[in-house]
Amino acid sequence: MPKFSMTPWIQNEDGLSLIPARDANYTAPLQGLTELISQNELHVVTTAQRFPIGSLIYDVGSDSKYRYVEYGGTIAAGSLAGAEVPDGAHDALDPSGTGTGAGITKGSTIISIADSITLVENEYAGGFLYTQVNGAGLGYRYPIKSNEAGATTNLNVTLWDPGLAVAVSASTDVALVKSRYKEVLITATTAVSIATGVSLGIGADGSFGWVQTRGPAAVLTDGGTALAIGHAVRRSEDDPGAVALLDFDEADDANVGQIGLCMDIGADGSYSLIFLTLE
Q1: Which pTM does this prediction carry?
Q2: What whole-number percentage of the chain has pLDDT above 70?
Q3: How far apart are CA 183 and CA 191, in angstroms?
Q4: Phi first, then psi: what are they for 220, rounded to 5°?
């Protein structure tokens, strides 16, 4: 089976486009786009992965975008999902380990972590390594192709070609951040990670499905905050997975970011139609 290191753009006669994400580890056949839409399977959650994580569907007619995700916990349809909280143990890492094939010169694609860390195989595939502080080569971020598993030193993280844009030094600290579409969770009432999208199905830990990132979506509404048509909404500080009115005059509201714009208002604690603007 082909590995999706290339990203064929698939479009059907209804103007729906599918762009599979770049993924060196996904080898199963893609589900057909026509079947996906005709059988309403954007709302179906499966235990088997059917697309590379992060794959994009764009519906030009409704100006809507959808992303394929792996769920990291239970989430209801119409609830706001967020990325997994970055692991603080994977910040400020030494990239000058001695793993097989590793290097820190320009063009190197294998970065070995000298620190003792714990990694699950390919948990950072689709995510990013970025140069964080100290040393040379700061201010760059690199997409991750794969990573080794273990709880030890000198674990390799493999970058996509062309690798490092500039050399880094032994004193450079790097950090690892997962794809925002891998192991998504219902948004908390505090902003501990970025919002990913609104779940189209009922997700469970280890399952796969679609979230909506742009366009009209039915979204859970904060039970204690009145929305206003045409006004911006944010993540709720009271109800997990819900949205609330974004008041730019309130300091706390300004810190959580805009999710979208209200198109129609449901009853408090039910669902409202929100034009999502996450991408």
Answers
A1: 0.89
A2: 86
A3: 17
A4: -55, 135
